[in-house]
From TrEMBL:
Record organism: Ophiocordyceps camponoti-rufipedis
CC terms in the record's Gene Ontology section: Pwp2p-containing subcomplex of 90S preribosome; small-subunit processome
Top-rank taxon, per record: Eukaryota
Compositional bias ranges of the Low complexity kind: 885-895
GO biological process: rRNA processing
InterPro entries named in the record: Quinoprotein_ADH-like_sf, WD40/YVTN_repeat-like_dom_sf, WD40_repeat_CS, WD40_repeat_dom_sf, WD40_rpt, WDR36-Utp21_N, WDR36/Utp21_C
Protein name: Small-subunit processome Utp21 domain-containing protein
Amino acid sequence: MSPSPVDGPLPKRRRTCTSVVSTGQDRKTSRIFAPFRTVGLVSPTCVPFTSTPLGKTTFQITTSVGRALQTYDLLRGLNLVFVTRPQTPVDITATVAWRGKILAAWGGAKKSEPQGLWVFQRGKKVDELKLPPDMAEPVKQIVTFGKWLIVCAITRVEVFKSESLEHYTTIHTMPAAEAGNEITGGVTTMPTFLNKIFLGRGDGKVEMWNVKTGKLIYTFMPASPDCGSVTCLEPSPALSLMAIAYSEGLLIIIDILTDKPLLQVEAGNSDAPVNCISFRTDGTGAGSDGRKDGVMATATAASGDVTFWDLNGGGRVMGVLRSAHNPPSRDGRLIPGGLTKIEFLPGQPVIVTSGRDNSLKSWIFDKTPFTTVPRILHSRSGHAGPVNCLHFLPSDFDGFEAGNKWLLSGGRDRSLWGWSLRRDGQSTELSQGAIRKKAGKVGILAANALAHGPVSTLEDLKAPEITCIATSLNRDGGIGAMPGKLPIWQKGQGRPKATDAEVSGATGWESVVTAHRGDSFARTWFWGRKRAGRWALPAGDSSNVSTVAISPCGSFAVIGSELGSIVMYNLQSGICRQRFPSKVSPAQARQLRLRQLQQADDVAQLHAETGGRFPPGTGKHTKRVTGIVVDSMNKYIISCALDGMVKFWDFLTGTLLNQIDWSVKSAPAMCRYHAANGLLAFACGDNSIRVVDMETKKTIREFRGPRDAINDLCFSSDGRWIIGASRDGLIRIWDLPTSHLIDAIRLERPCTALSMSSSGEYLAATIEDEPGVTIWSNKSLFRHVPTRQISEDDVDQISAPTVSGEGNQGLLEGAFEDDESAAGDEIAAPSTEQLSPDMMTLSTVPKSRWQTLLHLDLIKERNKPKEPPKAPEKAPFFLPSTSSAPAPARQDAAATTEEEAKSRITKLDQARLEERFSAVLRKAAMRGNYDDFITHLKSLSPSSADLELRSLSLGNGTAETNELLHFIQALIARLEARSDYELTQAWMTVFLRLHVDVVSQSQVLLSALRRWRAQQMRESRRLDELVGYCSGVVSFLRSPWT
């Protein structure tokens, strides 16, 4: 019979059908972590953004982030509203907004690479355009006008009908020498020019084609022979006028109808040609008072500046928006910069810009009095370069959930970002002060807009590249910490004013400390205020800072240097409080030496007075300090360095207490600490990870397997796993209790940094040369994770989390994912039978059952009623009247009859039970195997077992019918088998309590009891010896002197 249909809507997350079980060969996933999402990507590619008006109130801006598109709402402050899915097979090369849809072209950049053209609407793919099969060039630009869709490649243009999306014709540019027919300036259209498109060529010519007939109508010759190729075409608001920019810096505005230039300016140069032009269309902005029309904006990919032109009176530069986006860095390959597109919104005093620095910004002209340069309106951005380090914020003393929400990251672009995993709009970059104001004072922003080469750079005004992050929120005062305007990163060691100390003591102080590449100062940050802190803390020996740490209380920062010094500073005052080793004056050194000479004969007393075998002032690292840890109680500081030493210091005195000496080849490159279990993990130079117990100072685990250097490692939130990322492209997860490699993730490129949230919900990882941060969800929070050892050869490449969400999983999706390999991962549970005949095995019977059997008499005594129940004097009003109740005599007679019937049935069942118990016992005695009898006795309840033991009898005097003797022999056999030890003791105790008078009068039973007692004594002595031996071994291993 077919199931009936379900009435009403189904509840959430209810499985309505059985999923198809796959073989597992075509699906490669991690057993523990599921890809969740990628944060930090806004506009990291060179693909220009596209905009579309949304009604009369706002605009939507769409940017490319590789294989997906992100759409932002301008009215809501560039709030992210859509992310397209599915993601394209390869990177997107061109986009355009059209009738509420987004067209995205992808692929074709490499030889034999697939390519296509997809149509998205509200983040979902709704259609696809079929490109001609002979097309082997990537799409560079898409333009829509009228009933046509124009797809521009390198030397050809494909024309589609916008209504049916079918291919109409192909236009090939006219051939020319030296690749002069390449479309370098893109394609554009002109208002009132029906069915006409304009193509900018590499030889400086501009061709006008009729897309309906597919014919070349006219060719506009270059303004001069040496102007270079066309780089940009843009129609002006004035009819028949078009702006053309050339690669040598020339920009002209030409009348299309007469083919005559009306205006000619030098807007760039050969190193920085103009690549984007936009005209203001709200009718204002030009002139001395800003009330005239005729404003043009130009930008170049070689700088981050936007130049505004007043086209009235022959054209002049009216203003330059300096460093609207970061210019290309000195390492332009990893940290690109420059502008990719600028666009004035139609009818609005707003210009939108995007750059290769992974940012999207909007600017508005609304200053009073009138100014020619706009102010920032909205901004969305991320790291402009690859990410170096990650750190989830810990929870503070109030249990604030920052540890699961906020992620700190430092990148090669010299920025420190805080990412919100709950709402993208809350993500922010921590301010490094008024950078633009400083640049204006030192003259960086005062250069001529038309000068040769990059005109502005803010790179040198920021702190150097961040390499290490340490945080503690216990002293963070939030947004109210140290109110007012404060100087940032003071490098002097002057003591602050008393009022500053009082204010900071009441409101809190800095909670983040960072180390920087090639810099001798560590810097502090206010997390609550999202800005730079007051102190730049120098290394103890004037060398570069290599690593930093912060105490759990949030009051002290510990800094390690490249030459081996370790210094501790107070974060409230910025004053140095201790050095490791502590600084010893000459007088103290002489006294120490004299004391050693006087007491050299008494080694124990010498150790007691000097704190061990390491005198104060000794034990300094001789090479670069690679890791520093402060324990959870502020008692010890642990440091490791490239000299192969792991040192344990006293927090208060700075004296070296202990050290572990590893070889230089296996020197630790980094250190991680888990406070809950007191374990330290070190990534060593021999590509191994060693785990050291904080209490015993001994190595308890050593994990090997990485074939290249270890980039980063971290503990899981519960301290059960160690997660390590290495240069061979694998992220490995080891299980600490079993020492097994239980999972591995193989990525296309190596992971460079790792961090796990304090709740264990997320694992954050960065990919080499990528500006985004990938987030993985932990499936073990909702499902069992086997700890079976896996082989690295079986690990296949896994796709990293994507922005689009294609293939990504949240926590619940990961929890309910069907695990096809579950059957293979299952390990057969060990049998409940004895594992070895030399082991004493306990039973699987619940403890409460045999304990109840021992004290059954006492339980019955306590449960006896103290007095018989009494009838109520007067029945409540809601009980039925006595008239309807049966007569007492008749009721008593019925109860008696029923009780007799029950008694007969109960007696019959009891007789059957006793007969079965005796039969099983006698049958086991005849065979000499009492296993079935013991199994039957285990299945009885405490009251039934007590009744059966009471029913044991001597029989007719022969050995075959003596049930007491058989029972004793069964217990002896169980004791000899070394099984069910505690049950044997309980049953013998109850047996002797019930039948001691009968046993004492029978020599046969007494002889059997002596045999049982001898076996019991032998097992007792054997167990005592084994327990004593194990206790001694454990004590020996735990002793710090062995």
